[in-house]
TrEMBL record:
Family matches, as PROSITE patterns: PROKAR_LIPOPROTEIN, PYRIDINE_REDOX_1
Claim: NADP is one of the keywords in the record: yes
Protein name: Thioredoxin-disulfide reductase
A single cellular component GO annotation: cytosol
Length: 988
């Protein structure tokens, strides 16, 4: 379809775009890149309330962007509310300054308008500020805003005029009501607001207005969000109702009148009882009853374009019934009304017309997000659509509730955080739809949308190792089906126990082979003995119990959960969340929240530690989860390959025997062998329970994840911190990404001493710690630093001597147990998982997955080995870093520099736009093999919610992700995750 320049020279313009919103602008920019001469026409007809706006279309001015800003303002209000639960001393008398918030948002929009104009000018596009209407299929009359008229001609015409809100045909609707076109620039606070409509615009506006402190009522003529999954829509509605939004369903407004005190009297019909006329008094009435394109403005009848229900009919190539006229965006019949869809379609049209491409937009698996107070995002079919397409017995619905860790200390209700995955019930177990309600839903679903375009199956989803601790990981754990009858509102182990009590046969998952558990071997007291009740050991024990075998678990902790719960990631993630909330309290002022002296907020360390301790002890309780496991509260050590001596914490000793023994003791921090290290230094095991705040100067010694995360926590909570590393920081990670992390932390105040090695610690007369150290580049010069605290984070080591490992003599590698692909040691009946296993990623989710799979291999005949490829990881530094797959360095070593291609770019998180927060460190890259298929080898991102974002992309890589599929997937607007689908810039 591409045309040569000579073929186009007879026309004034190669392309005329009527409308310069997201779709029109995307098409124009791409066409100019491909050498076309482009004219753009844009004019905003004022609303009945007189609202006008600049260039850029609905999304920029009165749609996605201002909506997301107000949603962010609402979230920041929640952050102020939550901050005291995380130890922050924040004044309680805070409120939103509507005028300031609107001013900041409008300033941001105007700067975007200006950037659009500059970009058009620099790319030599001709811009007409006027309304374009057809004279014939190549000729457009332009009625300029200044009243003049002119005609222009073009080879191709693109219609991208979007649509505008509909007003009801009732008395007072135009005079006294407003729409979303007016709301985001409203000069005065809306006060008591009536949102009329049942769609996403009404629900999103009602949600953020309520969270900003206004009294809100939603009026709908029928069901709320009727085109969405109804179970999910009900949960969204119930959550909003629990937050104070009132719902009037089956009502229809009759009239709006202005009262004597300048309020609005709304009269409405009760559709369930026509004899009742109801009324209510409001300050603002917001019409959100639908949208319609202003087609009459463009005189479409002059060219006889096919129209259906006031929308333009197009083919698969966005071509109308008139061959040279195309249409994209909300004006098009049957297309999702989403900004990323319009952008994809616009770019696609330009490439077909001027670039010689013949592909069309993939409209399958387009993710959608509702930015309600508790976000709802989904991709694929709803449950209702699945039941219409397939027989009830041909689909399965996996579902479950989950507890976001950010809700635990603040005690926000978790009863509304819900996930469901709809699958085909056949051998493929192909996933048809994923639905997610909870924090950061939009960020989470983007990667899963990409995965679904790769053909994601249930087996791949469940075998994808989770990113811990994230809400996104819960998608990989929805094991319970609706047809099983298990209660999805309780933790998985409660569901398992409930089911075990109901039936003797232990088949829980549809796709698990029915098993016959062998008779208990009477030669041994237990079928499985787990030395270590951490997450890996516990996962193996629970799965073994589920499969009907007799299990013992030995652990000295009061509760089973190990390092993860007691001194590891649970504490760390709570503290990381505290840091984020402290920062968000400061950001809130930029969004109009009146918080007194936000930068002078203080941290109550004891309160934070106490609340985390209470929460983790609740998780670590053993009574219910150990109901089917014999738990020994003590230390286990080998007597022989089948016998373990248990020294109970109450001094009692006993002997247990097992057919299989699992070693899952984890590791403990290492202290350097220098004077004063034990007397004056602490490790992460003590840091998370320090009785007093780490005031003064703290030295974190180490270059790994633990050191960087603790340093990030300290600086985030307002303390002084220095990091000392003997070589490079995070040297096993992508060094380009690490450099950004270090620069970001340094910009916040962290001091880095690289290539330094501590020699000794002594207590100075001032009761502070004098640390002497050598710099590798100044070997003869001893340097000194004075600190108030030293934290060792130089590595971890397994306590092998404690378990008397020499008795069984398995093969070891640097104090780690060597295992084969099935986690089996060189002693056939003894297995090892988790941090103690040599060559395995030291991650909690890896231990859990390995433990679960081991139990299945031992007791149900499964032969599947754990897949350690493409294990995603997140580092919870102040600016998070998450990745999956190879680093750039690893890819170059494996495939040569010319054998890979790296797409990369910086991006600007929308949540930073009003805060003046630096975006210089927000960066992402995708590494792919340089062959005809371009398989993705690795993905990396630094920025907000990086861990949440990466989980879905991990599933995508495990599903065979290629660059083509990544860039073919429509983005979730406006999220940071969507930038991965637009990362077209290559490294040279």
């Amino acid at each position: 379809m591409a045309k040569s320049r000579s073929d186009l020279q007879s026309w004034e313009y190669d392309l005329i775009c009527i409308g310069v919103g997201s779709g029109g602008l995307a098409c124009a920019k791409e066409a100019v890149k491909l050498g076309a001469k482009v004219a753009c026409l844009d004019f905003v007809r004022p609303t009945p309330a007189g609202t006008r706006w600049g260039i850029g279309g609905t999304c920029v001015n009165v749609g996605c962007i201002p909506k997301k800003h107000m949603h962010q303002a609402a979230l920041l209000g929640n952050a102020i509310e939550d901050a005291p639960h995380f130890g922050w001393n924040v004044p309680k008398d805070y409120a939103i300054n509507w005028k300031k918030m609107v001013t900041e948002i409008q300033n941001n929009i105007r700067s975007t308008n200006w950037l659009v104009k500059v970009e058009m000018r620099t790319q030599n596009m001709t811009y007409f500020n006027g309304i374009g209407s057809f004279i014939d299929q190549n000729t457009i009359r332009v009625r300029m805003a200044n009243g003049t008229e002119q005609q222009i001609r073009g080879k191709y015409i693109l219609i991208a005029i979007g649509n505008r809100p509909v007003y009801p045909k009732i008395p007072g609707a135009l005079e006294y009501g407003i729409t979303s076109d007016d709301l985001f620039s409203l000069s005065k606070p809306p006060g008591k607001t009536l949102c009329v409509g049942a769609g996403y615009v009404s629900m999103e506006c009602a949600g953020f207005l309520n969270e900003l402190g206004f009294n809100v009522t939603v009026m709908a003529r029928a069901e709320i969000l009727s085109t969405f999954d109804q179970e999910m829509a009900t949960i969204v509605k119930e959550y909003m109702a629990s937050r104070g939004v009132k719902f009037l369903q089956y009502r229809l407004p009759k009239s709006v009148e202005l009262t004597a005190n300048k309020q609005l009297l709304v009269k409405f019909r009760n559709l369930k009882n026509e004899n009742i006329e109801e009324q209510g008094i409001f300050d603002t009435v917001l019409w959100a009853m639908g949208r319609r394109a202003l087609l009459d403005d463009i005189n479409f009848s002059a060219v006889n374009i096919t129209i259906d229900d006031h929308e333009i009919v197009v083919n698969d190539f966005e071509q109308t019934s008139v061959p040279n006229i195309f249409a994209v965006g909300d004006v098009v019949k049957g297309r999702p009304k989403l900004t990323p869809v319009a952008i994809k379609a616009g770019v696609s049209v330009a490439r077909r017309l001027f670039g010689g491409e013949d592909s069309c937009v993939n409209y399958n698996n387009i993710p959608t997000t509702l930015f309600t107070p508790l976000e709802y995002s989904f991709v694929g079919v709803t449950e209702e659509e699945a039941l219409r397409q397939f027989d009830e017995n041909d689909i399965d619905v996996h579902h479950g509730y989950y507890n976001p860790i950010e809700f635990i200390l603040s005690k926000r209700p978790t009863a509304y955080c819900y996930i469901k995955v709809i699958t085909k019930r056949d051998e493929s177990c192909r996933i048809l739809g994923i639905h997610f309600i909870g924090p950061n839903a939009g960020e989470i679903l983007q990667g899963f949308a990409v995965a679904m375009n790769c053909g994601l199956t249930l087996d791949t989803l469940f075998s994808t190792v989770s990113v811990n601790i994230t809400n996104a990981e819960e998608v990989t754990k929805v094991f319970i089906t609706k047809r099983s009858g298990l209660d999805p509102s309780k933790p998985l182990y409660f569901r398992i126990y409930s089911y075990l009590n109901k039936c003797k046969k232990k088949k829980i998952f549809k796709n698990m082979k029915k098993i016959q558990v062998g008779k208990h071997d009477n030669n041994y007291e237990y079928d499985l003995v787990c030395i270590g009740g951490g997450c890996g050991g516990l996962a193996c024990a629970l799965k073994a119990v589920e499969l009907g075998v007799k299990v013992a678990c030995i652990d000295p902790q009061r509760g089973a959960a190990g390092i993860y719960t007691n001194v590891g990631i649970t504490y760390k993630k709570h503290m990381h969340q505290a840091c984020l909330l402290g920062r968000e309290v400061c950001h809130a002022a930029c969004y109009g929240w009146n918080v007194r002296n936000p930068r002078k907020r203080s941290m109550n360390w004891q309160k934070l530690i106490s609340k985390i301790k209470i929460a983790t002890e609740r998780v670590a309780k053993t009574d219910d989860r150990m109901k089917y496991i014999q738990f020994f509260n003590g230390f286990g050590s080998f007597v022989d390959a089948h016998s373990v001596k248990v020294k109970m914490t109450n001094k009692e000793e006993l002997l247990v025997t097992g057919k299989y023994i699992l070693v899952a003791t984890g590791t403990r921090p290492v202290y350097p062998k220098i004077p004063g290290s034990l007397e004056y230094g602490i490790t992460s095991d003590e840091f998370f329970s320090l009785p007093s705040p780490p005031t003064g100067k703290t030295l974190c010694v180490g270059g790994g994840v633990v050191c960087m995360e603790i340093a990030g926590i300290l600086i985030g909570l307002g303390f002084n911190v220095t990091v000392m590393a003997r070589s490079k920081v995070l040297q096993a990670f992508g060094q380009e990404m690490v450099k950004l992390l270090m620069e970001n932390m340094a910009s916040r105040g962290v001091v880095f001493l690289q290539h330094c090695l501590p020699k000794s610690i002594a207590l100075a007369r001032c009761k502070r710690l004098l640390v002497s150290y050598n710099h590798s580049q100044k070997k003869d010069d001893e340097e000194f630093g004075v600190f108030d605290r030293v934290i060792w984070a130089i590595g971890r080591r397994a306590p092998l001597d404690d378990i008397n490992i020499s008795v069984i003599n398995p093969a070891l590698n640097d104090s780690e147990i060597i295992v084969n692909e099935y986690e089996q040691t060189t002693v056939p009946n003894i297995y090892a998982i988790g941090d103690i296993a040599s060559g395995r990623p030291k991650l909690f989710p890896v231990a859990v997955a390995a433990g679960t799979l081991l139990a299945q291999r031992l007791f149900s005949g499964v032969r599947q080995a754990m897949n350690y490829e493409n294990v995603a990881q997140a580092i919870y530094t102040p600016l998070e870093y998450s990745f999956v797959g190879l680093t750039e360095e690893e890819a170059e070593k494996r495939f040569d520099k010319n054998g890979i291609v790296v797409h990369h770019g910086y991006y600007e998180p929308l949540e930073y736009a009003l805060t003046h927060h630096s975006t210089n460190f927000c960066y992402m890259k995708v590494i792919a093999k340089c062959d005809e298929h371009r398989p993705v080898l690795g993905m990396h991102i630094t920025g907000p919610n990086a861990g949440e974002i990466m989980q879905g992309f991990s599933a995508a890589i495990n599903s065979g992700l290629t660059l083509h599929t990544l860039f073919d997937t429509v983005g979730v607007c406006f999220t940071n995750a969507q930038n991965f689908t637009q990362l077209l810039n290559k490294k040279k």
